[in-house]
Write a structure and sequence with these properties.
Shape: globular
Strand content: 5-15%
Number of strands: 10
Number of helices: 19
Radius of gyration: 32 Å
Order of helices and strands: EEHEHHHHEHEHEEHEHEHEHHHHHHHHH
Helix content: 25-40%
Distance between the termini: 43 Å
Strand order of the largest sheet: 3-2-4-9-8-5-6-7
Mean pLDDT: 76
Length: 584
């Protein structure tokens, strides 16, 4: 493994989930997710893990998938299994799930892993955490909004591009799979924010789309680019058309990020392909696109001769990281698959190239003319990154993990922020929620004295009964603060409390099981009572959250079942919100 000379070092994030190798489309099916595991085995044994960061992405949730796909389609994928598939005969026909796209064990989990890696890769690129993100489990470019197609169920590419569009004005999508990237083109056919370029076999070949004249519609006119090919194209001819077209795209469109689908069924000898590219001819596309130094998302795709798929993707992973892998394969768990030569190479065959130079030049000139007619990048007014549906509601923990930590903390603090007029100092701070005017006045007096003597501006006022409750919690900070405040008035306050009222209060407290070991007082009751938050603080302390006495904040976060009020010296910590100042 040698560094590529003159190649600037890139920060590479590589996504892999070991569970991907455990899924199986069924006996005789050409799509085999094990190829991703074989690729990873080569990547690890070549030592590429030392040259990049390796992550296991969070699987995509149903809500994230429905950013593109229809709700009922995703719901169907999440429920159907081989055991209950007979109950969904009508839905199978509606969503074209069956022969090419069979129902197998773990179908939804497989889709979630594929989509999660592409979305997380796009998110890291957008947050400038890396320069190149790789997800070989992705690239499933045939899936439509409401139907499966061509072994693809969830279109991870569209979901990844949507994530990139939150931060980039324009995104370029390039597809070098032998099949046309119809699902991605269809998704962005009417917009100029995504330009799709596909080099594919056309004519009596799945999926039957991708004609030269398909250029987009409406606002997306000329932002869909198709280069139809015939059988047997060689490395030399592919390079002759690929580089000029991409150069013109970069000049006319000036994208902010690039997504490159690296389907390896365009390699020579593929079981379903009919092109004649070598491993190095295929990898030249990655090398060339990388040279533009834009955020780059590399995805998998087709490829049905597993030993060649894993060779090509491992080699291209090395190029992304800036290293040329050695020709001799290292010992790995799939070593026997690579016989008899055990070399890192896929060579072209002697099949006939039906793409004449005249044909390729004619198509290339038409494509270049269409691109020149764009006349420069479209002007798009960008403000803040657009909010997704999940941003408008409370996110679960998995969805929160996917977002930037600083952004997540800021939004959670803002969500729990208390308005100045939302809560006021309650007068019902006596025992059992009963109004105790004398204790309230005494608390106000101690607050004034503390404000005069405290270097930090003073702690919140506590009633005499509240001080005893705070002391009952042992090391609780408010108990200590309460013990230092108003010592001169404590005896007087206790004498003024009527014994009969104290007894009634104890009975009321006992009825809800809220009698503290050290005495009864305000702040010893949780569960929605607005007389204090000592119980909430104790819960937070047990959970490892640190609370610090100090001035009453103008804004705060109320803990569940507790209300922050003027009698509190600390702020209860909401689960999921880190303790701190609340600054983003």
């Amino acid at each position: 493994m040698e560094p590529v000379s003159g190649d600037p070092k890139k920060r590479v994030c590589y996504f892999f989930d070991s569970d991907i190798g455990g899924f199986h489309y069924g006996p005789g099916h050409p799509m085999k997710p094990t190829r991703v595991r074989m690729t990873h085995s080569l990547v690890m044994n070549y030592g590429l893990y030392k040259k990049m960061e390796i992550y296991r992405a969070k699987p995509a949730t149903k809500r994230e998938m429905t950013q593109f796909h229809s709700d009922d389609y995703i719901e169907f994928l999440s429920k159907v299994t081989p055991n209950n598939m007979n109950q969904y005969q009508k839905e199978q026909a509606k969503y074209t799930v069956g022969d090419d796209c069979p129902i197998f064990d773990g179908l939804f989990d497989y889709c979630a892993i594929s989509a999660g890696g592409s979305m997380e890769g796009a998110a890291r690129l957008s947050r400038d955490k890396c320069d190149i993100a790789i997800n070989w489990a992705g690239g499933l470019h045939h899936a439509k909004k409401g139907e499966a197609s061509g072994f693809c169920y969830v279109n991870d590419i569209v979901l990844g591009i949507l994530e990139l569009l939150r931060y980039h004005q324009r995104v370029l999508y390039i597809d070098i799979d032998v099949h046309h990237g119809d699902g991605v083109e269809e998704a962005f056919y009417t917009t100029d924010r995504v330009l799709t370029v596909s080099f594919h076999k056309y004519g009596e070949f799945f999926p039957g789309t991708g004609d030269l004249r398909d250029m987009g519609s409406g606002k997306g006119k000329r932002y869909a680019c198709n280069f139809p090919l015939r059988e047997g194209i060689t490395d030399e001819n592919y390079k002759r058309i690929f580089e000029p077209v991409i150069n013109q795209v970069m000049e006319s469109y000036r994208p902010g990020a690039i997504v490159l689908q690296c389907g390896t069924d365009s390699l020579s000898g593929d079981k379903l392909g009919c092109l004649n590219l070598s491993m190095r001819g295929h990898a030249n596309c990655i090398r060339f696109v990388k040279s533009f130094n834009l955020p780059l998302l590399l995805l998998g795709g087709g490829g049905y001769t597993m030993r060649n798929v894993s060779r090509a993707w491992a080699y291209e992973t090395g190029l992304a990281a800036g290293y040329e892998l050695g020709a001799t394969l290292p010992i790995n768990e799939y070593y026997d698959y690579f016989g008899p030569d055990y070399k890192l190479d896929v060579r072209s065959s002697n099949m006939e190239d039906k793409n004449s130079v005249e044909y390729l030049e004619r198509i290339k000139n038409v494509v270049l003319e269409h691109l020149r007619e764009i006349g420069g990048p479209p002007g798009i007014q960008m403000t803040d990154p657009p909010l997704l549906p999940r941003d408008e509601v409370d996110m679960d923990a998995e969805e929160e993990e996917r977002r930037d930590p600083d952004d997540r903390n800021r939004r959670l603090w803002d969500k729990g922020r208390q308005r100045d007029d939302e809560y006021s100092d309650s007068e019902d701070e006596g025992l059992g929620g009963r109004k105790n005017e004398r204790s309230h006045r005494a608390g106000a007096t101690t607050t004034n004295k503390n404000n005069e003597n405290s270097a930090t501006g003073g702690s919140a006022a506590m009633t005499a009964e509240g001080k005893r409750a705070g002391a009952g919690f042992g090391d609780d900070e408010e108990g200590e603060a309460g013990g230092d405040v108003g010592e001169e008035d404590e005896d007087e306050d206790e004498e003024m409390v009527d014994n009969e009222k104290m007894e009634e209060a104890r009975k009321a407290m006992a009825s809800v099981g809220a009698v503290s070991a050290g005495g009864v007082g305000a702040g010893a009751i949780g569960g929605g009572d607005d007389t204090g938050d000592a119980a909430g603080r104790a819960k937070s302390t047990d959970a490892g959250e640190k609370t610090t006495p100090g001035p009453v904040p103008t804004t705060g976060v109320a803990g569940p079942g507790n209300v922050t009020n003027g009698a509190s010296a600390t702020t209860a910590v909401q689960p999921g919100v880190p303790a701190g100042s609340g600054d983003a």
